[in-house]
């Protein structure tokens, strides 16, 4: 949710990193973001769950990768 919210607001996501247990927004805002970004018209709960699970796995891997660390790659992979 935090990544999607910042993406919609035009923030640079290259420097953002999720802080465990940090809470932002309401459950209604969270659901709205997922509905806007999941890519399925009128998704089922299962489709929303799969979307959030896949997005979460990808973002965790991205945050853990040295190749996505802006301090390591400097400006060579801007926007990657």
Automatic annotation (TrEMBL):
<dbReference type="GO" id="GO:0016874">
    <property type="term" value="F:ligase activity"/>
</dbReference>
<dbReference type="GO" id="GO:0016020">
    <property type="term" value="C:membrane"/>
</dbReference>
<dbReference type="GO" id="GO:0005730">
    <property type="term" value="C:nucleolus"/>
</dbReference>
<dbReference type="InterPro" id="IPR031248">
    <property type="entry name" value="RNF213"/>
</dbReference>
<dbReference type="GO" id="GO:2000051">
    <property type="term" value="P:negative regulation of non-canonical Wnt signaling pathway"/>
</dbReference>
<protein>
    <submittedName>
        <fullName>RN213 ligase</fullName>
    </submittedName>
</protein>
<dbReference type="GO" id="GO:0006511">
    <property type="term" value="P:ubiquitin-dependent protein catabolic process"/>
</dbReference>
<dbReference type="GO" id="GO:0016887">
    <property type="term" value="F:ATP hydrolysis activity"/>
</dbReference>
<dbReference type="GO" id="GO:0004842">
    <property type="term" value="F:ubiquitin-protein transferase activity"/>
</dbReference>
<dbReference type="GO" id="GO:0002040">
    <property type="term" value="P:sprouting angiogenesis"/>
</dbReference>
<dbReference type="GO" id="GO:0005829">
    <property type="term" value="C:cytosol"/>
</dbReference>
<keyword id="KW-0436">Ligase</keyword>
């Amino acid at each position: 949710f935090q990544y999607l919210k910042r993406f919609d607001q035009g923030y640079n996501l290259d420097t953002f990193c999720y802080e465990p247990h940090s809470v932002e927004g309401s459950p209604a805002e969270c659901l709205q973001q997922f509905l806007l970004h999941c890519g399925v018209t009128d998704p089922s709960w299962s489709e929303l769950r799969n979307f959030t699970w896949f997005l979460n796995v990808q973002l965790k891997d991205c945050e853990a990768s040295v190749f996505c660390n802006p301090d390591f790659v400097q400006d060579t992979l801007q926007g990657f």
